[in-house]
Write a structure and sequence with these properties.
The protein is α+β, with helices and mostly antiparallel strands. The protein has one domain: Inorganic Pyrophosphatase. The chain is 15% helix and 40% strand. The strands form 3 sheets. It has a 5-stranded mixed beta barrel. Strands 2-1-12 form a 3-stranded antiparallel sheet. The longest helix has 13 residues. It is globular and about 40 Å long.
Length: 190
């Protein structure tokens, strides 16, 4: 392991629930994403912390299908009082009810009927070594999140902006719960 990698690498331990435990090494621009919803599905699942299971929240009407795998970053709490939402932008098959390590590339800043609702955009580093996503991917995400609540009573969404990787990493750290703040591997021995 080279020196730069050693000092930019962290360990993190936390629980998603009392049964799902995470302990992974990752680079400072990487996060774990617990996937609730697979790419190209219209079934919106939510993780129920009381039952420790994914449960169907609702089925989106045609033509609304999630453009990419969708879930959350465990150990965070966003302004909407839920974990920080995340998308994994990939063409690879990604199954729900699993945790994936992904590299942060940006954030979607949007608002819905509950308030501000940021979504962290991630990729697999071996699939997309750049710090950005294509205009086509951005347009797919914008279209979906601008429209997916259109036919649902008392629900709405507005896209404000797409922000860069630095802003996304700031959000991840800001919303990380105190007991899950990043810590250096050496801190574990103290």
């Amino acid at each position: 392991m080279n020196i730069e990698k050693k000092y930019n690498s962290f360990y993190k331990k936390y629980f998603i629930s009392d049964k799902i435990y995470i302990d992974m090494q990752f680079d400072k621009d990487q996060v774990e994403v617990y996937v609730e919803i697979e790419k190209h599905t219209n079934v919106k699942y939510e993780f129920n912390k009381e039952t420790n299971q994914l449960e169907v929240d609702r089925i989106l009407p045609y033509p609304f299908f999630y453009p990419y795998a969708y879930g959350f970053i465990p150990g965070t709490k966003a302004k909407d009082e839920d974990e920080l939402d995340a998308l994994i932008i990939s063409d690879r098959p990604i199954k729900n009810d699993r945790v994936y390590k992904a590299t942060v590339v940006g954030t979607l800043v949007m608002e819905d009927e509950k308030g501000l609702d940021e979504k962290i955009l991630t990729v697999f580093s071996d699939e997309n070594p750049t710090d950005s996503i294509s205009a086509t991917m951005e347009n797919d995400i914008r279209w979906f999140f601008s429209n997916y609540k259109n036919n649902t009573k008392r629900k709405w969404s507005i896209i404000h902006s797409f922000e860069n990787k630095e802003k996304a990493l700031e959000l991840v750290e800001e919303y990380r719960l105190p007991e899950n703040k990043l810590f250096n591997k050496n801190d574990l021995n103290q």
